[in-house]
Amino acid sequence: MTTATETALTEERVQQLRADFPILAEQPGGVPLVYLDSGATSQQPRQVLEAEWAFRTQHNAAVHRGAHTLAALATDDYELARERIARFVGARPTEISWTMNATDALNSVALSLAEANRAHADGAGAVDPTLRIRPGDEILVTEAEHHANLLPWQRLATETGATLRWVEVDDEGVWTTDALLALITERTRVVAIAHVSNVTGQIADVPAVVAAAHEAGALVVLDACQSVPHRPVDFRALGVDAAAFSSHKMLGPGGIGVLYLTEALGEALPPARVGGSMITTVTMTEHEFLPAPQKFEAGTQPVASIVGLAAAVDYLEAVGMPAIEAHEVALGERLAAGAAAIDGVRLVGPRLGAERAGLASVIVDGVHAHDAGQLLDAHGIAARVGHHCAQPLHRRLGTAATTRASAYLYTTEDEVDRFLDVLSGVRAYFGVA
Fold first, then answer.
1. How many domains would you assign to the chain?
2. In angstroms, how far is CA 156 from the centroid of its own chain?
3. Distance between CA atoms of residues 31 and 409, nearest Å
4. Does the active-site annotation cover 389?
5. Which end of the chain has a smaller Cβ tally under 10 Å, C or N?
């Protein structure tokens, strides 16, 4: 665990970084912006905007398709981006393929597993034993999952006859590693978990989960949307079989996600989608696919956005992921401690002093999260309200919605304190204090 003071960014350095983000100088509603919604979508620095614009105005062409110079330049940009992003998460370029977003990436894994088992059932070919899911087998998730890492597995369970199981969370929305490990059996075929919860900030013990799952012969799928942008992540070192993350949460453009598949899994899985660009030969009755990662990239890809994501990775690496993590750990602790000290405000997630990511979600007694969010917004504070695409977790917490503040490398201590100051007056403002 990185400590809050180990390598944290200085206030001066944060101010320097903020100058790279034009939107942070805006005043929506006539008040200075305090952006505390990076857990939903991060802002983009000039360097990313300029990289995407440069590609669109200088190298824009179809990749892997043309013999002309412009197409060659575009293809070089495209594949160089793959190499840079693969290096960033400890992967080989052949293990990285493009998707529309992380939701699409997680769906792609589940759909590919369904396709493999469907083909086997239809007698179209024997499925790799590591992919076989039969009635009575089990798919394991947690009660804290984002819908993107729950619905695809619900559907896969229905299609294959498997049983969907989940580890329950406690009254604060936290699950334990021991409880999850106790549910892994010889019937477990897939374990799908978030590396970091987008609601509670809980950080999963991925190596322990991987070790137990692999011993049982199960695949591990990691939702890395809230970890890759905020802390050093090495998928190969973690040992996961598949992982997903999104560009728009890590300073990059929207509309592009990343799917990581180990070389072994990428070779064994059939593609979820078929079409142009991912084939070698097509007749009127048959086709053959290219090897991974191209076989998972049907159709024209958003090349400019991919180039922008590579620029975002360059930016994050230049700042330093350990420094970003330490900065956010400190802000997360400040958010949690400050919120917990306010009368009538309930902090959810790991207890104070326990490891958590740089976010905090709260329930304000007697005030709906949407009302709290409107008061925050009136003071220029952009925080997230709602169920954060995690309805089962909120149902367990006994609330329809929470108010979440999430920090990033450009967040300051003063912004956290402004959020806490307004939060402390919410109940009085609505007359329930």
1. 2
2. 21
3. 22
4. yes
5. N
User: In this structure, are residues 188 and 216 in contact, taking their beta carbons and an 8 Å threshold?
Assistant: yes
For the chain, state the CA radius of gyration. Answer: 22
Residues 300 and 425 in one domain: no
Q: Is 318 exposed, middle or buried (0-12, 13-18, 19+ CB in 10 A)?
A: exposed
- CB–CB of 135/144 below 8 Å? no
Residue 323 pLDDT: 98
Structure tokens at 297: 């990239």
Q: How many residues does the chain have?
A: 433
pLDDT of 129: 81
Contacts of 365 (CB under 8 A, 6+ apart): 344, 345, 346, 427, 432
364 and 271: one domain?
A: no
Looking up residue 380, the CATH number of its domain turns out to be 3.90.1150.10
Which of 320, 389, 424, 429 is labelled catalytic?
389
Q: Are residues 218 and 233 in the same domain?
A: yes
Pair 58, 192 in one domain: yes
Percent of the chain as helix, strand, coil, to the nearest 5: 45, 15, 40
Write down which residue in 317, 339, 367 finishes a domain: 317
Q: Are residues 114 and 217 in the same domain?
A: yes
35-44 pLDDT, tens digit each: 999 999 999 9
Q: Does the residue 228 lie in any domain?
A: yes
pLDDT digits (tens, 9 = 90+) for 122-157: 666 667 888 999 999 999 999 999 999 999 999 999
Q: How far apart are CA 102 and CA 257, in angstroms?
A: 5
Containing structural domain, residue 288: 51-317
Shared domain for 353 and 303, answered yes or no, is no
Q: Which of 317, 352, 379 is the last residue of a domain?
A: 317
Both 256 and 371 in a single domain? no
Same domain, 308 and 324: no
Distance of alpha carbon 71 from alpha carbon 59, whole angstroms: 8
Residues 6+ apart with CB under 8 A from 117: 127, 131, 132, 133, 159, 160
pLDDT tens track for 256-308: 999 999 999 999 999 999 998 899 999 999 999 999 999 999 999 999 999 99
For 61-71, what is each residue's pLDDT tens digit? 999 988 899 99
Closest to 77 (Cα-Cα) out of 305, 354, 237, 337: 305
8 A C-beta contact, residue 172 and residue 200: yes
